[in-house]
Request: fold
Amino acid sequence: MRKIAEQIVKKRVLILVLATVLLVPSLVGYIGTRINYDILSYLPEQLDSIQGQEILDQQFHAASMSMITVENMEKKQVDRIEEKIRGIDGVRDVMGLGDFLQTMPPEMVPQDLRGMLDNGVCQLLLVTFEEGNGSDRTLKAVDEIKAMMNSQMFLGGLAAVINDTKMLIEQELPLYVAVAVGLSLAVLFLGLRYSVAPLIFLLGILYAVLYNFGTNIFLGEVSYITSALAAILQLAVSMDFSIFLLERYDEELHKGLKSEEAMTEAVVNTFTAISASSLTTIAGFLAMCIMDLKLGTDMGVVMAKGVVLGVFSAVVILPALILVFDKPIHKHKHKVLIPKLRGVAKLTTTHYKAILIIAVALLIPFGLAQKKTDVYYNLLDSLPQDLTSTAGTQKLRDEFDMPTTHFILVSDQLSRPQMDKVLEVIRTTEGINSVMTLDKFLGAGIPEAMLPESIRSVFSAGGWKMIMANSSYTSATPAQNAQISELENRVKAIDPTALITGEGALNRDLVLIADHDIQMVNIVSILAVFAIIAISFKSLSVPIVLVAAIEMAITINMGIPYFEGETIPFIASIVIGTIQLGATIDYAILMMTRYQEERRLGKVRKDAVEHAVYTCSSSILTSGLSFFSATVGVAMVSKIDLIRSLCGMLARGALISMAVILLVLPALLMVFGPIVEKTSFQFLNKKGEEH
Reply:
């Protein structure tokens, strides 16, 4: 590593030139990376709901659909609107009650269908799209539909929800970055003695962020959640590495080394110091890749890649930047306003028993509360209530009592008695208020062949019959999830090949998968971080102490929403613990490393703990407050509850982790220090004393 460090220092100008040139393909890659706004598209392909969507798309051309409620409008005007919508690129078809009345005798149109499409005050238009709900072509078509709407028209459906999400993210993303950068710079200005250093740090991290987003093009696309959070988290996590490098550089300068020699030593020592902490962060993020919901892979890969590039920037690009701007950095100084906590250091060693008692007393109620926190899965719940999709969905509920529609696919080989039985079990399922299928058009003795092809193709294609069942329950609620499970059991008893799909079924599967993912991700992330710390410290007890401290902070963080009466997005339950563990375990490693150094110098345990807290407190506060400021800023400005909740919990988690590492971890070392030292290979390196 020393030879590499010497070359970095020697060829610093060339490095900066090459690093800047690489920004060009990174920008091209960033622009060329598609953003996916459809979370449901990340569900596993083997699910019945996903297979049903595929059949709806390939055979019925109805996988993506929006509903337009038209209020108090004459038939001629509705017909003109239909024609305009049909002419939009990406729209496959538009169907209203008038389309059925034009293709067959009025007496053959089922009463259920009439009530479904026209309640006397409002008419319902079903708009089907050529491509999926989240495709660029569909979202553009929704934009054009919204542009031609007036005050008598209300657009609902999943495509409209995704379109509104896209609109908000595009509006807010620049604001996220601006707020996060501004607040982080403010914290760094308070925590560092050099006024110019925060700007240099930011410039170094900017290279890493742009490289990360540019290389996402190899993934094809990333989710909007990843796109919104990755830069913020990379900024917060990578800032530690920058602080470590500058502090070490200054330390070497104070020893009398020249700038190039000092930077060489700083690069070597910084890489050694951050290797373990960065690996734990990377492992924490990569743990999300085991999720059945592929959104985890999306987030895990991008965030882990961001940490790797952050390390690269800290040991290659940032040293070159610091050397180039060495004079202005050291010329402009000010008083450090984030102090070392001498009082806290004494408190932790004097009252460590009381601290541990309080910690345990807090852990029990928050641990119980964590399991009782309410969670929501419906995308609509995360959006402001004044958007097009929320107003349209509410109109569907108010006028037609159909918050969601289930699409039930059965074999077209079912006999008439079997089909009648299927329809009967659907009709008698609680919460189903209307059912529409091809058989509704067939009276006694009327063969299917007599129906117009335009009607038959809507309900029968590719060996399947499609049944539309309107539910009075809202998607992703326990009532609707139970309803879908009941429908599955009853319909599959008649036709084992039957599939149920639609927004409700997709969200029900999201609930089931998320519950499983929560457990698996937490276990894998803990084991991965445990293993890395165990190898780094050559100890089984050190990872137990460090992980226990961070897991306590996570438990408190995840339990707070219950006491606040807050309902959090499902993704928070999965990723908050993993991100908080990966991002803040660094504080614990820093504290333990310093404690080990002090013990190896021969200090007694009490003095070693106290000195570790004192010397590490400023770095932990600066890093933790930088993490807090970056995420809390986004939480304050975002109108999307999913983003707001995630960032708010991450910000709170950073504060809690800081408090636990500065108070509880030292108390743990006071009690379990002897066990740690005896169960770790050469922990004292034969220089410490047993006290």
